[in-house]
C-alpha cells in the first residue's frame, strides 16, 4: 500500500485532489501536510476527514525536522507536492514568502524524500526508483504569449512575476534531483484552475462574491488578458494520471483548450447570476468596473496538452461553460 504525502492538501486544488483520490479507491494512505496559511482551510477536507486511510498534519514544509518525522512516522512512499504561495498579486507586494515556501520548501521536501527513500527502500519492499515525487506547477513559468502560439513542454522558461519565478525555480530543483540523483520525479504544468473551494482572493470567486454583494466587480486593465481555464476536477484527474502512469523525469502540460479573456469570464458569470438570482431592473453586468492593471500583467497563456492526452490518455471533461455553471452554483450556496 502506498503512503502518499500530499502537501498543501487544505488548499483549493489539494483539497479537491485528496477528495478525488480517496473516492477513487486507489488502496493508498493519504497524509496531508498543510501550514493552514490564510489560503488553507481545514474544513475543505471535511468530506474525507473520517476516512480510514486519511491523516492530517498541521505543519510547514520548510520545517525539515517535522518533514523527516512525518516520513518516518507514516512510512511515506510517495509525494504529491502542491503546497505553495499561489497568488500573483501577493507575490508582487511580498515576494519573500514565495521564495521561502515555493523554493526552500520544495527543496526541503525533495531532499528529505531523496535521503529517506535512498536509505530505507527495504521498508517499502520496493526499490528507490519506485517512490515518486510529483511536483504540481503552473504554465506561468513559460512567461507570456502574444495573440498566437501554445506552451509545450519544450517552451523555454521565462517567468515574469515573483510567483512564477519561484515556481520556475522549484521546477528546476525537482528536475535536478532526477538528473543528478536518479529520483523518480514528474512535473505537471497546468493552466488556470477554477471550481469549488478556491480562495476568495482569486478572479472567479471575486466576481461572484462582489456581484452577490452588489459591489463593483473589479477587472484589471481592459479585461482582455487571456487564460486557458481548466475545471479543478479535470486538473486533479490529470495529476492522478501523471502520478500513476507518467514516466519518471517527464514533464506534462495540463490544459483544457478553454482560452477565455477576463471580460468574457465576468460576463458569463453575470449572465448565469441574472438567470439564477435576477436583480430588479438591471443586470449584474452593470457592476463591472475596470481598475488599474496588475504590474507586469502577462497577456496570454495557452497550453498544448497533446503529450498528456496522447501518452497518458487524459482529456478534460468540462468545457468552460459547463464548469463555470457548476462553479457559480457552488458559490451561490457558499455565499448565501
Ligand atoms: P492555494 O493557495 O489554494 O493552496 C495552497 C495551500 O498550501 C494552502 O492550503 C496553504 O495553507 C498551503 N501552504 C502554503 N504555504 C505552506 C507551507 N509553507 N507549508 C505547508 N503548507 C503551505 O493554492 P492552489 O490554487 O490550490 O494551488 C496548489 C498548487 O497548484 C500550487 O503549487 C500552485 O502553484 C499550483 N497551480 C495552481 C493553479 C491555479 O490556477 N490555482 C494552476 C496551476 C498550478
From TrEMBL:
Name of this protein: dTDP-glucose 4,6-dehydratase
Keyword match Membrane: no
Broadest EC class assigned to this enzyme: lyase
Keyword line: Lyase, NAD
Molecular function, one GO term: dTDP-glucose 4,6-dehydratase activity
Known EC number: 4.2.1.46
Superkingdom classification of source: Bacteria
GO annotation terms (biological process): nucleotide-sugar metabolic process
PANTHER family in alphabetical order: DTDP-D-GLUCOSE 4,6-DEHYDRATASE-RELATED
Lineage: Bacteria, Pseudomonadati, Bacteroidota, Flavobacteriia, Flavobacteriales
Cofactor: NAD(+)
Amino acid at each position: 500500500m502506498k503512503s502518499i504525502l500530499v502537501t498543501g492538501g487544505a488548499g483549493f486544488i489539494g483539497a479537491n485532489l485528496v477528495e478525488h483520490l480517496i473516492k477513487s479507491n486507489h488502496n493508498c494512505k493519504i497524509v496531508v501536510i498543510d501550514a493552514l496559511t490564510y489560503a488553507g482551510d481545514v474544513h475543505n477536507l471535511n468530506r474525507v476527514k473520517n476516512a480510514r486511510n486519511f491523516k492530517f498534519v498541521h505543519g510547514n514544509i520548510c520545517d525539515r525536522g517535522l518533514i523527516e518525522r512525518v516520513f518516518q512516522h507514516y512510512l511515506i512512499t510517495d509525494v504529491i507536492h502542491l503546497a505553495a504561495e499561489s497568488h500573483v498579486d501577493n507575490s508582487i507586494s511580498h515576494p519573500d514568502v514565495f521564495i521561502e515556501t515555493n523554493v526552500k520548501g520544495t527543496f526541503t521536501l525533495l531532499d528529505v524524500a531523496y535521503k529517506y527513500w535512498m536509505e530505507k527502500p527495504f521498508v517499502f519492499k520496493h526499490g528507490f526508483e519506485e517512490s515518486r515525487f510529483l511536483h504540481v506547477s503552473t504554465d506561468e513559468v513559460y512567461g507570456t504569449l502574444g495573440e498566437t502560439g501554445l506552451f509545450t513542454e519544450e517552451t523555454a522558461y521565462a517567468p515574469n512575476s515573483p510567483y512564477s519565478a519561484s515556481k520556475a525555480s522549484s521546477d528546476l530543483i525537482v528536475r535536478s534531483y532526477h538528473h543528478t540523483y536518479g529520483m523518480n520525479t514528474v512535473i505537471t504544468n497546468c493552466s488556470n484552475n477554477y471550481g469549488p473551494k478556491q480562495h476568495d482572493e482569486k478572479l472567479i470567486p471575486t466576481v461572484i462574491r462582489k456581484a452577490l454583494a452588489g459591489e463593483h466587480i473589479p477587472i484589471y486593465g481592459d479585461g482582455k488578458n487571456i487564460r486557458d481555464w481548466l475545471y479543478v476536477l479535470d486538473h486533479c484527474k490529470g495529476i492522478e494520471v501523471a502520478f500513476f502512469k507518467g514516466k519518471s523525469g517527464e514533464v506534462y502540460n495540463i490544459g483544457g483548450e478553454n482560452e477565455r479573456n477576463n471580460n468574457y469570464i465576468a460576463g458569463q458569470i453575470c449572465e448565469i447570476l441574472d438567470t439564477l438570482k435576477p436583480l430588479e431592473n438591471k443586470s449584474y453586468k452593470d457592476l463591472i468596473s475596470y481598475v488599474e492593471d496588475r504590474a507586469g500583467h502577462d497577456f496570454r497563456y495557452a497550453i498544448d496538452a497533446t503529450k498528456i492526452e496522447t501518452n497518458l490518455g487524459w482529456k478534460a471533461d468540462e468545457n468552460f461553460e459547463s464548469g463555470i455553471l457548476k462553479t457559480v452554483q457552488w458559490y451561490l450556496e457558499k455565499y448565501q
